[in-house]
Amino acid sequence: MTAPMTRKQLLRRAAAGAGALTLPGLLSGFDPAEVLAAGKPFAGKTLRFSNWPLYIDVNEKSKQHPSLQQFTKQTGIKVAYTEDINDNAQFFGKIEGPLSRHQGVGRDLVVMTDSSGLPARMIQLGWLEKLDKKLIPNIKNLQPTQRHPSWDPQRNYSLPWQSGMTGIGFDPKKTGGPVNTVSELLDNKKLKGKVTFLTEMSDTIGLVMLDNGDDPSKVTNKTFNRAVQRIQKAVNSGQIRQFTGNDYAPLLAKGDVWACLAWSGDMVQLQADHPGLKWVQPTRGAMVWTDNMLIPKGGNVQLASTYMNFCYQPKIAAEIEDYVNYICPVVGADKVLRKTDPDVAKNTLIFPTQKMFKNAHQFDAKASQNAGYKAAFQKLIGA
Amino acid sequence: MGPGLAVLLLFFVVPMYYLAHQSLETGSLEVGYTFKWAWHNYSDAISSNHQQLLRSLSYAAISTGIAVVVSYPLAYWIAFRGGRWKNLFLLLVIAPFFVTYLIRTLAWETILADGGPVVGVLRWLHVLGGDGRLLATSAAVIAGITYNFMPFMVLPLYASLEQIDVRLLDAAHDLYASRRLSFLRVTLPLSLPGLFAGTLLTFIPAAGDFINAQLLGTPKQYMIGNVIQSKFLELTDYPQAAALSFVLMAAILLVVLVYARILGTERLTG
Amino acid sequence: MTASVEPMPLPAQRGTALSRALERVRHWVLPAYAGLALAYLFLPIAIVIAFSFNDPKGRFNYTWSGFTFKNWAHPFAVPGIGSALRISLEIALISSVVATALGALMALGMMRHRFRGRGLINTLVFIPMTTPEIVMGSSLLTLFFQKWPLIGYWHLGFGTILVAHITFNISYVVVTVRARLAGFDNHVEEAAHDLGADGWTTFWKVTLPLIAPGVLAAGLLAFALSVDDFVITYFNSGETTTFPLFVWGAARVATPPQINVIGTMIFVVAVGIALTNVIAQGRRARRIAAA
Asked: Which chains touch C (3 or more CB pairs under 8 A)?
């Protein structure tokens, strides 16, 4: 590894080279990470980063975010970090006004879930900036299974932050045995009134489609309606108690709900206090969703891309993962954690096996935003 | 009176104009919205959602009724027997609000849990309905709404009751009125403005509530507020959401006007 | 309003042991009922307070895991919760004071004068309460990100949340104060005028004290509405976080017991202030009586 350049050397070389002081020019022939680390080209600027609450590492004594502090030290970029995203649709409702009027939203980086279909929609509406991949060489650390999502095949607009899987959470003491299929949730009369499904269309419809033997990544009217009809029956009979966001968690913990569609990250937390609770991938397949870092139009592409590169270092990803405990998209983070926090590294809800990844499916992004499907699903859940 | 009116005009009426404009548009974010005098937004809104609309009005009415029954004696007691401690009790009535809605509702979910003591007792008394539970039923939704809006009933009632001159009641007693009669003929009529205000402050926002149905109800309990939320956030069908909002507002105003006519407003609002 | 006359019960019926016992029971019915109502109000709060001492191993505070004081030792350990709380309290205080002032004046104005358009304004006051929060919040946001003459673009944050809260609070204040005004006797004001008081003095020394309980009630309502508002605040908050916004946002991944602690703290502080007020008044009254 060559010695990092000083600022003076950088400027001298740039002056010596032909053309203006453009980053691409500087980077030719040099390791970009080194250049950036040495040069700190964006020092003094501020990255405006909006995220979901409690979704980044935190030092509970100092109340700072260590990884963000390291970012500032390494690049000189300050971070204005706000935790003001709490629901994809709500957040979309908040930013669609300015974005649809071609105004910026005062943010360089936001995090939204792919299964909501909203990142896909925002790409189509032209509301996202393209990432500056040249500033993100660490993109090579992205999990292979995450590299080509159907809605952003070249990862031009997004990069995963954390993932989660949707499967079946249950209390074996109440259900009297394992609940391994969605069919059991829908048809087992013993579970009547003790089952909840999710208000996320991609999770609920996706899992039922898988149970029907259909492919959720290619939704057709027939397969969609088949799933809806099965769920409608369960709603009418009272088999399904409620459709919930993550408020199934207290119900499951208290025993009001015995089995439900559940998110892997929630189960990690619930199991800490209730080791008896179990989470499984349904035998016919689970759904996987990803919260993605996106750059809204008007955001600073350079700053955002620099940050993305930073948090895709395995060491940094491991720090964040150790706190957040959802599914890490960065290869190598688990190796780091095996030394520092082996319990987290071994937890398959945080670092799923390859087999689990194979059994996990993504929902058809186009279908996520199909107005007809959405309206039908909303009617199903009562609205 | 001016500044208050100015605030309302600027920050409420103007946005309402935008909303009305939007309710008559058609289109989507992808193709853009065009103003087309799209009255079908209104007719579609009513025809597909009249069930939730009626349900909302009835839940709100029931909750308001229960709130009156529970709150009136409380307000009466604070006003007449509170003495020096009146303001303290008023604060006690409001204080539960300082604990955010989500945490209060989680607490109710704990209290009313299927395996909990409350449900156990009710099951033993055989008063529970077919579901055999309290949570995720209409009862839970109505109870949640009532609980949420109790301060809105107690405080105006108190304001009105506190004003009643005790000497009027003494006079009634001197004239040989029984306690029941002096209440019915003196106290109650004088407290009607407070009752009117309290029922309005409870019924009106309750009709548009959505969060109680979402957390404590099943799809069969969903209210018009849930539909509007869904149309706005999930379906991003802003014209329909706007139209439906106006339909709800009109429905509530209609109920309020009829109610006011029955009670006779001039006397009530001075 | 005159009460009609009913024949008095026969003298022999008064004074029996039974009637005296019934009298005692009846005397306690009202306080018992009121006590039950208050208990109903506080039942969930008791659970909230109890769970503030909970020691969950995970991030959710849903079931009892063990007793601990550490949440109380570090109530603001969750980053962001302290500032969210401070902002919520500031906004609630300012918006309730302003809305109460504006609303009370409006209610007074509406009561006194029979002007044309009074019916219209009457209805106008009701309509914000009927408006679903989500459309009120988003249409207000639409107003805020237009370019305004003189002001230019609004900065979404504390200021816009404040404006939103004041706007929706006014209606509630007006309705509550008018309930009090309904029994207001104009003659008292006229008497003050006859005795030489000008408008301002009349307002401060006569009108305001008489309607004070109504104004106080309205102020408390406005404060409660503001401190617990979520939907309208969310749309108009920009990047500012208030306490409800924080709680709802965090709830996806965690419900830290500190939320319970903070809720309890506000509750206790508010009650404490009211309590000291009462005691101070009592002492003052006793001192005046003794003097």
From this structure: A, B
The one-letter amino acid code at C219 reads G
Pull the structure tokens for residue C90.
């500031």
Q: Please tell me the distance from the alpha carbon of residue A311 to that of residue A138, in angstroms, as a whole number.
A: 9
What pLDDT is recorded for position A27? 42
ipTM, 2 decimals?
A: 0.85
Residue C2 pLDDT more than 50?
A: no
Per DSSP, what are the bridge partners of residue A291?
A113, A162
Contacts of B72 (CB under 8 A, 6+ apart): B157, B195
Q: Residue C145 is nearest to which of A98, A269, A272, comparing CB atoms? A: A98
Going by the DSSP 8-state scheme, the letter that residue A50 receives in this structure is E
Q: Determine whether B99 is exposed, middle or buried from the number of CB atoms within 10 Å of its CB (0-12, 13-18, 19+).
A: buried
pLDDT tens-digit readout, A57-105: 988 777 789 999 999 999 999 999 988 888 899 899 889 888 988 888 8
C93 vs B: CB within 8 A: no
Which of B18, B44, B216, B218 should we substitute to test contact with A (largest number of A Cβ atoms within 10 Å)? B218
Residues 6 or more apart whose Cβ sits within 8 Å of residue A259: A168, A169, A170, A171, A175, A179, A184, A185, A191, A194, A195
CB C285 within 8 A of CB C95: no
Query: Phi and psi dihedrals of C138, rounded to 5?
Result: -75, -30
Residue A48: closest CA among B126, C156, B24 = C156
CA of B121 vs chain C CAs: smallest distance (Å): 17
Token pair for B156: 């105006």
Query: Nearest to residue C77, comparing CAs of C254, C268, C266?
Result: C254
Q: Which among C102, C111, C266 is the nearest to B270, CB-wise?
A: C111
CA dist A316 and A322 (Å) reads: 10
List pLDDT tens digits, range A203-245.
Answer: 999 999 999 999 999 999 999 999 999 999 999 999 999 999 8
What residues contact residue B261 under an 8 Å CB cut-off, 6+ apart? none
8 Å CB contact of A374 and B234:
yes
A254 in contact with chain C, both atoms CB, cutoff 8 A = yes
Counting one residue from chain A and one from chain B, the pairs whose CB atoms sit within 8 A come to 79
Confidence grade of residue C12 (pLDDT, cut at 50, 70, 90): low
Average pLDDT over residues C252-256: 82
Q: Say if C56 is an interface residue toward chain A (CB within 8 Å).
A: yes
Distance CA C177, CA B69 (A): 22
Average pLDDT in the C223-233 region? 90
What one-character DSSP code corresponds to residue A108? S
Give the per-residue pLDDT at B154.
93
Strand partners, A47: A79
- Least confident range from A279-288, B87-96, C130-139, C178-187: namely C178-187
Separation between Cα atoms, residue B212 and residue B58, nearest integer Å: 15
Distances from the Cα of A149 to the Cαs of A207, A307, B189, in angstroms?
Answer: 18, 21, 68
pLDDT digits (tens, 9 = 90+) for A123-154: 999 999 999 999 999 999 998 888 999 899 99
**Distance, CA of C30 to CA of B76 (rounded, Å):** 9
Specify the pLDDT at position A8.
45
User: Which residues is A280 bridged to in the sheet?
Assistant: A168
Backbone angles phi, psi at A242, to 5 degrees: -150, 160
* Residue of chain B nearest C139, judged by CA positions: B15
Q: Looking at the complex, does the CB of residue B235 fall below 8 Å from at least one CB of chain A?
A: yes
Gap between the terminal Cα atoms of chain B: 16
Alpha carbon of C272: minimum distance to chain A alpha carbons (Å):
30
Residue C146 DSSP one-character state: S
Q: Which tens digit of pLDDT belongs to each residue from B156-191?
A: 999 888 888 888 888 888 887 787 787 888 888 888
In sequence order, which residues have a C-beta less than 8 Å from that of residue C224 and are 6 or more positions away? B94, B97, B98, B151
Q: Is C274 on the interface with B (CB under 8 A)?
A: yes
